[in-house]
Specification:
The protein is built from no helices and 11 strands. By secondary structure, the chain is mainly β. The strands form 2 sheets. Strands 2, 4, 5, 6, 9, 10 and 11 form a 7-stranded mixed β-sheet that branches. A 4-stranded antiparallel β-sheet has the order 1-3-8-7, with no helix packed on it.
Amino acid sequence: APQLAESGGGSVQAGGSLTLSCTATGFSNSGYCMAWFRQVAGKEREGVAGIGSDGTPTYGNSVRGRFTVSRAFNTLSLQMNLLRPEDTAVYYCATRAQSGGSCTLLPWVYGFWGQGTQVTVSS
């Protein structure tokens, strides 16, 4: 089964930037959607950004224009700019089999998850 591991989280001031990475092993980068989700304790997991096996990106409304998702080889990345305090969350990467097209940001669809990495944005 796919194995996912996030890295790159940390603390940053509002308006700053962070880049998250997710290293995927145990499967081919082709034929899978990969996506980022985030979750705050006590709240539902929220879709952040996804990218299809053909490179088609999808963004959640709250991050569109600020975050950029990309993938190459076995690595999924999320470039986060203009960070806001409300971006504070644990960020998870996930994957599911899909041959192409845009990736859903519904978390229940995804069966394989990383352990998460904390992002904290202070005002």
